[in-house]
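A.,

Following up on our hallway conversation. Structure tokens first:
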């Protein structure tokens, strides 16, 4: 998903690399906290997230910053889910920023892709295999709405 705003990439980059920004605007991510002595974004730094939605209930994650090149890319991998550690990421989330050609602002993209680790979506599908398509479509719709809502919030905050 993408959105454009009237701010320079540096300002938008500051916002999206602040993990509390997503928590302020996401309908699902409720709370975040740096872990292991980290006090800000850096490759390898970890943070916890408390998430909630009506369909899945509440869950906790631990994410690790995988890529950061201010003000262009901020990417993190979800590596723990409800105290279960996974060798590979469950999901990879990213913000990418691109200055508009005319210099008037920034194109911000935000998205996620599923990682290779088996996660809660797999568990639900295993319980209800006859509803796999519905389950996946429903989760993708929630993710899409959450990303759109988060982008709109970041845009409003950047332009304030």
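Then the amino acids I'd put at each of the 160 positions:
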């Amino acid at each position: 998903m993408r959105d454009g705003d009237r701010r320079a990439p540096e300002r938008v980059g500051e916002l999206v690399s602040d993990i509390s920004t997503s928590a302020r605007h996401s309908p699902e991510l409720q709370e975040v906290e740096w872990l292991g002595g980290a006090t800000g974004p850096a490759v390898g730094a970890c943070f916890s997230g408390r998430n909630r939605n009506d369909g899945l209930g509440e869950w906790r994650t631990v994410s690790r910053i995988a890529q950061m090149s201010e003000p262009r890319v901020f990417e993190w991998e979800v590596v723990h889910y409800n105290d279960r550690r996974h060798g590979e990421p469950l999901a990879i989330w990213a913000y990418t920023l691109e200055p508009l050609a005319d210099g008037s602002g920034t194109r911000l993209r935000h998205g996620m892709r599923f990682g290779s680790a088996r996660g809660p979506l797999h568990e639900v599908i295993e319980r209800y295999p006859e509803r796999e398509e519905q389950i996946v479509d429903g989760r993708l719709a929630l993710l899409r709405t959450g990303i759109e809502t988060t982008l709109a919030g970041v845009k409003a905050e950047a332009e304030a």
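The chain has a mean pLDDT of 91. Curious whether your intuition agrees with the design.

B.
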